[in-house]
């Protein structure tokens, strides 16, 4: 059972995710791995025929995730969170470090989590900053 601080932080994370008014909140997955001074969040939106990846605001979301992680007792701290919004409600699942394979690449683990929640769909990533067609070369 989450304590009052944890509940407030989970609600704050939901509010941060809801600030994206360009995409529906329903069908959102926030997957993050957290440790001391380390936060690696990823936001995915299920858009039906594909999944959209959104770059998170590390200043805002990263701080909230670190606060959530620090609110947990040291002996019960988790290393990953899956925060899913469906039907106007959220669920948060925490994975302790003991259940994470240290030899598995974190991006492979993340992709597996996305597939578990949304099925096997194409993930669309935004273009990298500074990239445009002028910098793209095609080999024949």
SSE order and pairing:
Layout: H1 4-18, E1 28-35, E2 38-46, E3 50-54, H2 58-71, E4 80-86, E5 89-95, H3 106-118, E6 122-124
Parallel strand pairs: 3-6
Antiparallel strand pairs: 1-2, 1-4, 2-3, 4-5
Description:
The protein has 140 residues and is an alpha+beta fold. Helix content is 30%, strand content 28%. It has helices at 4-18, 58-71, 106-118; strands spanning 28-35, 38-46, 50-54, 80-86, 89-95, 122-124. The protein has a 6-stranded mixed β-sheet with strand order 5-4-1-2-3-6, sandwiched between helices. A hairpin with a 3-residue loop joins strand 2 and strand 3. The longest helix is centred in the first third of the chain and has 15 residues, at 4-18.
CATH fold description: Murine Class I Major Histocompatibility Complex, H2-DB, Chain A, domain 1
Helix content: 25-40%
Query: What does the average pLDDT come to?
Result: 90
What is the number of beta strands? 6
Radius of gyration: 16 Å
Largest sheet: 6 strands, mixed
Count of all domains: 1
Summarize this, please?
This protein is of the alpha+beta class. The protein has a 6-stranded mixed β-sheet, sandwiched between helices. It starts with a helix and ends in a 16-residue tail after the last strand.
């Amino acid at each position: 059972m989450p304590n009052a601080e944890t509940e407030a932080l989970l609600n704050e994370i939901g509010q941060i995710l809801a600030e994206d008014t360009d995409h529906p909140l329903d069908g959102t997955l926030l997957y993050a791995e957290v440790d001391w001074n380390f936060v690696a969040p990823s936001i995915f939106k299920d858009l039906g025929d594909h999944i959209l990846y959104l770059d998170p605001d590390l200043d805002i979301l990263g701080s909230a995730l670190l606060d959530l992680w620090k609110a947990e007792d040291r002996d019960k701290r988790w290393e990953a969170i899956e925060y899913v919004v469906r039907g106007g409600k959220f669920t948060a699942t925490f994975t302790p470090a003991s259940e994470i394979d240290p030899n598995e690449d974190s991006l492979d683990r993340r992709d597996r989590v996305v597939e578990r929640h949304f099925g096997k769909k194409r993930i669309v990533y935004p273009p990298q900053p500074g990239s445009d067609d002028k910098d793209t070369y095609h080999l024949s």
